[in-house]
Design a protein that fits this description.
The chain is of the alpha/beta class. It is 41% helix and 20% strand. It is built from 15 helices and 17 strands. A nine-stranded mixed β-sheet has the order 9-10-8-7-6-5-4-1-11, with helices on both faces. The radius of gyration is 21 Å and the shape is globular. The protein starts with 5 loop residues before the first strand and ends in a 12-residue tail after the last helix.
Length: 386
């Protein structure tokens, strides 16, 4: 079986650029989008030669994939169906903004086997949506979910951002409760990050962006964990909550440190022995992809040291944690061979615990996850530990 079981395809077009977003994105232009889809085909062909490849997950992200027209989506999905065996693909997801769907688009997605939609809701407040640079309104969320469900797409995830400028704890709680009232099977949540080259970063530098205090952000996270649990959504990763069986299989590919293709401008892939990152500027990506199918900006060989580090801090993002048995099977020695002192120190601080075969973050560890992950960086290359 192909060792690469997941595919990420990046569609960089948006109708509007959000004030907090630093992903590879460009204003939608029909001609440019046509050229881009053609370039994508060349890139995918360079990696995937035969048809019917057996992959477990496909994720079309962005940008806003649903910014494409029906005919452009048709061209893209038709090609994906040619290259990958959709009938054997357990999860086929697409990202979308509320209000972007027409019935034609939903029916098209359904006909090609798309069975999961991730909706960028962000907050249930029209004024805050406007301040984030979003085009949709709260009413669009309800209309979009109804449209999807009426056409048989019920595996729907919503994204929420918290610790927004001027957001109070009470406001976040109200927004979260509206999300919970939808009864959807999956929720992804993120504290606002101020990223360079964004509108929010410029405001932040000028002292015009006022985020909630750190202790308020911590309280929001606690409310998030309590509220989702009360509504039957289990926290399975630091930022993700799902009803049993509705965890994102595609994102678990990343956290399980497994291989995946990344196609499109600015996309990243992880294939045996290396990670690669694609060219971001659109004209350069299109030109190189059409020329030779390999629009790669850089390739980073992955040493055993990096594999081990990533196995630990990606695995610890999951609430299940890192399996000591699986680690030993993969690398030929247990985590304690390299990390005994770090593990003991983190357990003393109540940031890490051992639960049978698993190393897991504690509740305190979840709040300080980045500090925990730093303890699993190795100072030198790993000698033969067998």
């Amino acid at each position: 079986m192909n060792a690469i079981q997941s595919v990420y395809i990046h569609i960089p077009f948006c109708q509007q650029i959000c004030h907090y977003c630093d992903f590879t994105k460009f204003f939608y232009n029909e001609k440019l989008a046509d050229d881009y889809i053609e370039a994508l085909k060349h890139e995918i062909n360079a990696y995937v030669t035969e048809n019917g490849n057996d992959v477990k997950t496909i994720f079309i992200g962005g940008g806003t994939p649903t910014a494409l027209t029906v005919s452009q989506l048709d061209a893209l999905l038709s090609f994906i169906k040619q290259k990958f065996d959709i009938s054997r693909c357990g999860e086929f997801s697409i990202e979308a903004n509320p209000g972007d769907f027409t019935e034609d688009k939903v029916k098209l997605l359904k006909s090609y086997g798309v069975n999961r939609v991730s909706l960028g809701v962000q907050v249930f407040d029209d004024q805050m949506l406007q301040e984030l640079g979003r085009l949709h309104k709260v009413k669009d969320v309800y209309q979009t979910i109804e449209l999807l469900q009426n056409n048989g797409i019920t595996n729907i995830s919503t994204d929420l951002i918290y610790a927004l400028p001027k957001q109070t704890i009470k406001h976040f709680e109200a927004s979260l409760n509206q999300a919970m009232a939808l009864g959807l099977p999956h929720l992804s949540t993120y504290a606002l990050q101020i990223e360079p080259k964004t509108v929010f970063y410029q405001r932040h530098k000028k002292g015009k962006l006022h985020r909630p205090a750190q202790d308020e952000e911590v309280e929001m996270y606690q409310i998030l964990k309590d509220t989702t649990k009360k509504h039957g959504l289990n926290q399975y990763e630091i930022s993700n909550f799902a009803k049993p069986g509705f965890e994102s299989k595609h994102n678990l590919t990343y956290w399980d440190n497994k291989f995946y293709y990344g196609f499109g401008a600015g996309a990243y892939g992880y294939i045996p022995g290396e990670r690669y990152g694609n060219i971001r500027p659109l004209p350069a990506y299109i030109k190189k992809a059409i020329a030779d199918g390999k629009p790669v900006l850089h390739v980073d060989p992955i040493s055993e040291k990096e594999q081990i580090e990533e196995e630990m801090f990606l695995g610890l993002r999951k609430m299940q944690g890192v399996s000591k048995r699986a680690f030993t099977s993969k690398f030929g020695f247990p985590p304690s061979r390299l990390y005994a002192s770090s593990i003991n120190e983190l357990k003393r601080k109540d940031w890490l615990k051992e639960a049978g075969d698993y190393l897991q973050l504690t509740e305190n560890g979840k709040l300080l996850a980045n500090e925990v992950f730093e303890r699993f960086l190795l100072e030198e290359e790993v000698a033969d530990m067998n």
